[in-house]
Amino acid sequence: MAPVDQNSILEAVFGILFRGGWVLAPLFALGWFGWFLMIERYGYYFMLKGSRINGLGGFWKTLQKSGEEAAFKKLERRRFGYFYALASDIRNHKDQGPVAVRNAMEATRHRISVNLSKGLKTISTCAAIAPLLGLLGTVSGMVHTFKSIQLFGFGNPVLMADGISEALLTTQAGLLVAFPLMLAYNFLASKVEKVEEIAWSEALKYESYVFANKSEEK
Fold first, then answer.
1. Count of domains observed in the chain
2. Phi and psi of 171, rounded to 5°?
């Protein structure tokens, strides 16, 4: 297998950038920035999701069989999980009563929700701006084409092709940036909402379990 010539790849990339005009440079930067944020958000999502996948089933079984201490030891392996944070609030504030527990849970829920959605609006903005930049490049390419026609008439198709190529490349680039980015954003947003719902419902279930046991002890 012949080695890949990195210089030729770079030349091809820069050739496309030059043919597409100045709009391709911000489009290229916008795409990289959007995907950088997307990958970082996916990492944070999977960190919070971990306890739901690997810990919750074992948590409830261990809680019934061996008690609270053993159950929390299982959760500590996934200590950054959403449910772990809420369950820790219940455990730490249960002696202060239900109101203190619910206030702590609401504060944790708000904090994690803010952290989860921190970059999502920026990602959706990047996906929305990309086709607009592509449209701007289309207009710029057509202006370039009409200037060539004005100066040289229809006798030089090469000069006309440069402007048309610029218009089509930027339109294509805008759609190529926006389409996968928006799909990934919608998928992540739905998954984040699902994790929040499951973690909160399981935490409420644990809260009921804790205070039911406390009332029985009394």
1. 1
2. -60, -45
Q: Cβ(21)–Cβ(166) under 8 Å?
A: yes
Indicate whether 147 belongs to any domain. no
H-helix or E-strand spanning residue 59:
helix 56-66
**pLDDT tens, position by position, 26-43:** 888 898 999 999 988 888
* Residue numbers of the domain that contains 39: 21-127+170-217
DSSP for 67-112? -HHHHHHHHGGGTTSHHHHHHHHHHHHGGG-HHHHHHHHHHHHHHH
Whether 161 is in a domain gets the answer: no
Q: What pLDDT, in 10s, does the model give residues 120-151?
A: 888 989 999 999 988 888 888 788 777 777 77
